[in-house]
Design a protein that fits this description.
Strand order of the largest sheet: 1-2-3-4-5-6-7-8
Radius of gyration: 20 Å
Number of strands: 8
Strand content: 5-15%
CATH architecture of the largest domain: Alpha-Beta Barrel
Distance between the termini: 29 Å
Largest sheet: 8 strands, parallel, barrel
Number of domains: 2
CATH topology of the largest domain: TIM Barrel
CATH superfamily of the largest domain: Phosphoenolpyruvate-binding domains
């Protein structure tokens, strides 16, 4: 087993031109597999409510629920860093509330760093956390909530015109530099595009990592485990290529089990 990944090592990868890779996961078994595969970090995302539990709103996740997922991933991880999302609420409430939540995620959940969503709108919170020694993975970029301030319709953000917006890129660079100055240890750049993404990577010394809307122009990538695995009912009929299609394999296995049981045959396993 390789040595435990550290934030300093993650930052050194940027300086050395090495791409970092992360995985969004929420459970012990996937964390175990991901750790053996060699991911640099595992991100416990607040999208668990929508993607795993079938809720309608990504914001409908509590701190206690995030702690359950973070503990599970921490137990399954030996090498990779564990990043845990701060759920919606504490950051918006106050710096003190964010600090209290972050301490719980680290002490009770076992997180190595805390991801703060929409961090560009809360640089004082980033400063407050880093002053207390809490590593912050600061998320910023284009989302349905923020695209308007860059003058980009969200539905058009992935078009060449939106990605090439010099005005948007300039503002995103400024926000990235503010977050770096505030003490963030890494940036999660949502919907970066090759123009703004490359500009931000060049403008800051900390790793710039992207999930949705990212690309090879960034210092690293993070992917949802369910997407990489093709896990979920939607992948039964999906035409998008991913790394495997667990949904179809599961449907075939379940159908075979049902057939064996109905025919009076011994089931496998």
């Amino acid at each position: 087993m390789s040595e435990k990944m550290t934030i300093a090592a993650l930052q050194a990868m940027k300086r050395e031109g090495k791409k970092s890779v992360g995985l969004v996961a929420w459970d012990y078994q996937i964390a175990r597999i991901a750790d053996r595969a060699g991911f640099d970090f595992i991100s416990v995302g607040d999208s668990v409510g929508v993607n795993l539990w079938g809720r309608d709103d990504v914001l409908d996740v509590t701190l206690d629920e995030m702690l359950i997922c973070c503990r599970a991933v921490h137990r399954g991880t030996t090498r990779a860093l564990v990043s845990c999302d701060m759920p919606y609420g504490p950051v918006q409430q106050s710096a003190d509330a964010a600090l209290a939540a972050a301490f719980r995620l680290m002490k009770e959940g076992g997180a190595d760093m805390i991801k703060v969503d929409a961090a560009a709108d809360f640089p004082d919170v980033v400063r407050a956390l880093t002053r207390e020694g809490i590593p912050v993975f600061a998320q910023f970029g284009l989302t349905p909530q923020t695209a308007g301030k860059y003058g980009i319709p969200y539905s058009a953000q992935n078009s060449p015109q939106a990605q090439a917006s010099a005005e948007a890129a300039e503002r995103l660079v400024e926000e990235a530099q503010v977050l770096e100055e505030a003490g963030a240890c890494a940036l999660d750049f949502t919907n970066s595009g090759p123009v703004a993404g490359a500009a931000v990577v060049k403008a800051v010394k900390i790793p710039v990592i992207g999930g949705f809307g990212g690309g090879p122009w960034l210092d690293g990538r993070v992917r949802l485990a369910h997407t990489a695995l093709g896990y979920g009912e939607k992948w039964l009929d999906a035409t998008t290529e991913t790394y495997t299609n667990t949904a179809r394999a599961a449907l075939a296995a379940f159908s075979a089990l049902i057939a064996d049981a109905r025919a009076g045959r011994q089931i496998k396993g």
